[in-house]
Design a protein that fits this description.
This protein has 523 residues and is mainly β. The chain has 3 domains: 97 residues, Immunoglobulins (Immunoglobulin-like), CATH 2.60.40; 312 residues, Methylamine Dehydrogenase, Chain H, CATH 2.130.10; 86 residues, Immunoglobulin-like. Helix content is 0%, strand content 55%.
């Protein structure tokens, strides 16, 4: 009979998490057109609208598997921005020839027909967003051109009436430097709205903010490398990120009052969106470039788009992202790579302490791991911290010993924390810590078994140990242990592949203890 080796420690749980490496590339969708698309808006996972040059408006109701062109409000207009709440109701803004004569149109029949709600022959429209079915805000470049008066409109009846916000309700545009807005870039969250602006000759970018659905505005600014168009998105009312065509990034933690800038060389931003389910900001830009960041712009990770077409806008439903750009390009993203790919997590109980071991395949901005423990029906508490390896593509091994743990059943989990405070939990694993005040022979598991089973026991002191297996006649068929062993928990695997089916007995014999239990081999 071939002996099984005895392990003096117990590996109680193994979790292979392989932390769902969500697809890190964009997938092309068929738009059916070759016209430049300027804007795209996700209503949910299935319903999206897009718009672009030559009056093009597209819609999908199956997540982008199929796109169809709807009736154009005006084939002579460049449609810069679109917003919608469902598959039937949408608003779109367009400017004739892409230079002036801006209009707002609304459809309530899925794009079969459109009603003109507003027109300004001398205006250039930048963005429109609806807070709900009735309340919305629109902004356009200063009108007349070269003046300090922004064209900011609000509606409280779904666009039936658009009312111009008085000049005293917002900081005046810099008429000398010819300050203008950024096309499409109007972001809303709750009742708050932000839009960005710049001057052609300056290196300062501006962010305008309203907290009452566009009725009143304040302005902040930040220095840019070269100046020019910038695009903003917010994770919540305080934390936001603005990116610029010149690769400047500006981060705020106070809602846009103050900004901290840095540079991301070679990125070429044209649009940004915060995706809470990814814990990331996703950007698209010139020549098909796309990136994401999970640390507020300190580190940018490239995403494969498979195109060199310029991408003008990115939107999210929360679960997915879509991007739109030149030549009718539409792409879909099913997630980004998680910052830490956890591949294993084990708990080992020995002598009233628990040793945790885990490994990662890759790490991005990993500050470290909090080790958290709980007992039955109790909250997790933090019992330790292990420093991470930052950013690495190499496999990393970690270990932590939780000492002086009382007898009982415990759950452990890891709280992985990024440098910016973003965190994720691992799945919990369970471990049993046994009392070492007495001898114990556990029932084998599984039982019945075929052909292997685990036999575990506790020694209250260092002692001579014999662990025997006998058949139903009391005949010895295997000696699993015959040696001196230390106090503590012990476990081994018994392989009965060479034995016939039937009832067997295993017996633990020490200097001061003896016990026998029954097990059933079923082949």
């Amino acid at each position: 009979m071939k002996r099984s080796l005895l392990s003096s420690i117990l590996v109680l749980s193994l979790v292979v998490l392989s932390a769902t490496e969500i697809f890190s590339q964009w997938v092309p969708q068929t738009s059916g057109i070759t016209t430049r698309l300027r804007n795209i808006r996700a209503v949910n996972d299935n319903v999206l609208w897009a718009c672009g040059n030559s009056g093009v408006v597209l819609k999908t109701t199956d997540g982008g598997t199929t796109w169809a062109a709807v009736t154009s409000p005006n084939a002579g207009s460049t449609m810069y921005t679109i917003d919608a709440f469902d598959a039937t109701t949408a608003w779109v803004t367009g400017t004739v020839g892409g230079t002036a004569d801006v209009s707002i149109w609304k459809t309530t029949d899925g794009g079969a027909s459109w009603v003109s709600q507003y027109n300004n022959p001398s205006g250039f429209g930048d963005g429109l967003k609806m807070f709900d079915a009735n309340n919305g805000v629109y902004f356009g470049d200063p009108d007349p051109v070269g003046s300090s008066n922004w064209e900011i409109l609000t509606t409280s009846n779904g666009g039936t009436n658009w009312n111009r916000v008085p000049a005293g309700n917002y900081p005046p545009a810099d008429s000398v430097a010819e300050e203008v807005g950024v096309a499409c870039n109007l972001f809303t969250l709750g009742n708050t709205a932000w839009f960005t602006a710049y001057t052609a000759a300056g290196t300062t970018d501006f962010v305008y903010k309203s907290t009452n659905k566009g009725l009143n505005w304040t302005r902040s600014s930040f220095p840019a490398l070269l100046g020019g168009s910038s695009f903003t998105s917010f994770a919540d009312q305080n934390n936001g990120l603005t990116v610029c065509l010149d690769n400047t990034t500006a981060r705020t933690t106070d809602g846009g009052t103050n900004w901290t800038t840095s540079s991301a060389a070679g990125v070429g931003f044209r649009s940004i969106v915060n995706v809470p389910t990814y814990g990331a900001y996703v950007t698209v830009g010139s020549s098909g470039v796309s990136n994401y960041t999970k640390d507020g712009g300190a580190t940018w990770i490239p995403l494969t788009t498979g195109t060199t077409q310029t991408l003008y806008w990115v939107t999210t439903s929360g679960n997915y992202c879509w991007a739109a750009g030149n030549a009718g390009t539409i792409l879909k993203l099913d997630g980004v790579v998680l910052p830490v790919e956890l591949t294993s997590f084990t708990a080992v109980s020995q002598n009233q302490q628990v040793t945790l071991n885990w490994s990662t395949a890759t790490e991005i901005n990993n500050n470290g791991f909090e080790i958290q423990r709980s007992t039955a029906n109790s909250e997790f508490i933090t019992v330790g911290f292990v420093r991470g390896n930052g950013t690495t593509t190499n496999q990393s091994e970690y270990s932590y010993v939780d000492k002086n743990v009382s007898a009982g059943n415990y759950s452990y989990r890891l709280k992985q924390i990024d440098f910016n405070g973003v965190f994720e939990y691992s799945d919990a694993i369970e471990v049993e810590v046994l009392n070492l005040d007495s001898y114990v022979l556990n029932q084998n598991y599984p039982n019945p078994f075929n052909p292997s089973t685990k036999i575990a026991y506790v020694l209250k002191e260092k002692t001579n140990v014999k662990l025997l297996v006998m058949n139903a006649l009391g005949e010895e068929v295997a000696v699993l242990v015959n040696q001196t062993q230390e106090q503590g928990y012990h476990q081994l695997d018994f392989n009965a592949s060479n034995l016939p089916s039937g009832i067997y007995f295993y017996s633990l014999q020490t200097d001061n203890f003896s016990e026998t239990k029954k097990m059933l081999l079923m082949k």
